[in-house]
Amino acid sequence: MQYINAYLNEISRRLPRKNRDDIIEEIRSILMDMIETHNPGADPDEATIKAVLNEFGPPKKVAQQYVSYKPLIGPDLFSIYLLVLKVVLTVITILNFAGVIVGLVNGAFRETGLFTVVVDQFFSLCGSLINVFGIVTLIFVLFERFVPEKFKREISDEWSPDDLNLVEDKMRVSIPELVIEIIFEIIFIVFFNFYLDKIGIYSQSEAGWVMMPIFNENILRYIPWLTAIIVLNTGINLYLIRQGIWNRAAGMAKIVINVLKIAVFAAIILGPPLLIIGPESWPTLSHELGITDQQFTQYMNLGLNIILGLAIFGFSVDTVKHLWRNFIKKDRTSMEIATQ
Amino acid sequence: MTETPIHEHSQNLVQELRRGVIVLAALSQLHEEQYGYSLMTQLEERGLQIDQGTLYPLLRRLEDQNLLQSDWRVETSRPRRYYVLSETGKKVLQEMTVEWSRIKNTIDNLLFKN
Q1: ipTM above 0.85, yes or no
Q2: Min Cα separation B20/chain A (Å)
Q3: B78 and A57 in contact by Cβ < 8 A?
C-alpha cells in the first residue's frame, strides 16, 4: 500500500486542485482492480504492485493526461497581440530616440557627457520596453481569460471572400496614413499663411501669457513655395483616397513633389537661420535655462536643421520607393512575362 | 539532421489514427454502465489496445462534454466510478457511427479498389 500511496501522491501534486481528490480516488480504484486481476484473491505482494504501477506509467505522464492546458494567449488573439506589441514597442523606441535628440540639441546632457547619456538611455529604453511588453501581455492574458469566446472569434474570424485583397498589398493606399497627412498639411497651411505671428514660445508672466515670436522675416520667402507644394500634395492625397490604389501617375507626381520638398528644405538649411529669440523677449526665459539668447537661438536652428535633414532623408527614401515600384519593378515583371 | 526511421513514422501516424477512433470505441461500449478498468479490459478483449493513460482521462473529458454521466458506487469490495452514455451521448454515438461507416467505405474504396 505504501507504494500505491506514494505513487498517488506523486500524481496528486501535479493535478489541479479542482478535481484532484476525485481523480486520485478513481486511479486508486483502477489500480486495485489491476492488482486483483494480476493476483486474484491473495494479498498483493510488492512485486505485483510494482508491476502494476509500472504498467500504469510514470506519475508525471499520468497527471499530464488529466490536465488540459490553456494557452495564456490563444490563437484567436495571438495575431492581434503581436501587432499591438510591434506598434507599441516601435512607438516607444522612436519617442525615446526623439527625446535623446531633443535633449542633445538643447544641450541638456552637456554635464554628464555623451557616453554616459547613451548608456543611460539605452538601459532606460530596455527597461521601458520590458515593462510595456509585460503590460501588453498581461492585458491580453486577462482578455483571453475573461472575454467570452464568441466575442474573441468575432474580432479575429469575421471573414468573407469579399475581404480578400485582390490588389497587391504594396499597391494599396493606406487611407489612415493619408488622412493624417492631409490634416497636418491643412494645419500647416492655415498657421503659416494666416497665423504666422502667433507661432512662438509661450510663457506665463505676471502680465499673463506672453508670446515670444521664434520666426524671423527669413521664413517669408519660403512660405509661398511650401504652400504650393503642400496644396499639390494634398490634391494627390485626395486623389489617392478616391482611387484606393497607387498608379504610375500618382507615383510620378509624388516623386516630383519629393524633389521639390528636398530642394526647398535644402535651401532652408543652407540659407540664413529662420529661428530667432530676440534679446527683448529673452529675460522671461533666461533665468530658467541659464544660457544666453544667442546660444538658445543657435540650438533652435541646429534642431530645426536636424529635423529638416531627417525629413530630406525620409523624402529620398520615399522617392526611391516610388521609383522602384513604378519603373524598375514593373519593367522587370513585364520582362518576365514577355520571356515566358 | 538525422532522418526519422520508417517504423517511428508509422508508429506516430498509427497513434494519431487510433486517437481519432478511441472516442467512438469507448462510447460504443457504454450503453451499459462500466467502470474504468472493466471498460479497458473489454476493449482489449475485443482487440483494441488502449494506453491506460489515455482512456481514463478521456472518460472524464467525455463526461465534461455531457456525453457520459458517472457516479461512484460500491458494488463489491470497494467504490468504483461507473460511466454510462447520457442522452446526448447516445445521439452523438449514433451520428458518429453513421459517419464512421461512411469514412470506412470511402477509405476502403481509396485503398483497395485500384
Answers
A1: no
A2: 16
A3: no
CB pairs under 8 A between A and B: 45
Q: Please tell me the distance in Å from A38's CA to the nearest CA on chain B.
A: 13
C-alpha cell at A275: 529661428
Answer yes or no: are the C-beta atoms of B59 and B83 closer than 8 Å: yes
Report, in angstroms and rounded to the nearest whole number, the Rg of chain B calculated over CA atoms: 17
Mark yes or no for CB contact B56/A65 under 8 Å. Answer: yes
The chain A residues in contact with chain B (CB within 8 A) are 19, 23, 25-27, 29-30, 32-34, 37, 55-57, 61-62, 65-66, 68
Of the candidates A285, A276, A300, which has an alpha carbon nearest to the alpha carbon of residue A210?
A285
Q: What is the pLDDT of residues A180-233, one digit of tens each?
A: 788 788 878 887 887 777 777 766 566 666 677 778 888 888 889 999 999 999
C-alpha span between A107 and A334 (Å, rounded): 54
Q: How far apart are CA A240 and CA A245, in angstroms?
A: 7
Q: What is the DSSP string of chain B?
A: -PPPPHHHHHHHHHHHHHHHHHHHHHHHT-SS-EEHHHHHHHHHHTT----HHHHHHHHHHHHHTTSEEEEEEESSSSEEEEEEE-HHHHHHHHHHHHHHHHHHHHHHHHHH--
Q: Could you give the CA distance from residue A232 to residue B111 in angstroms, rounded to a whole number?
A: 69
Q: Which of A30, A32, A65 sits opposite B54 (nearest CB)?
A: A65
Beta bridge partners of residue B72, listed in sequence order: B81
**Dihedral angle computed from the Cα positions of residues B39, B43, B45 and B50, in that order, rounded to the nearest 10 degrees:** -110
Residues A260-284 pLDDT 10s: 999 999 999 888 888 887 766 666 5
Partner residue opposite B53 with nearest CB, options A23, A29, A65: A65
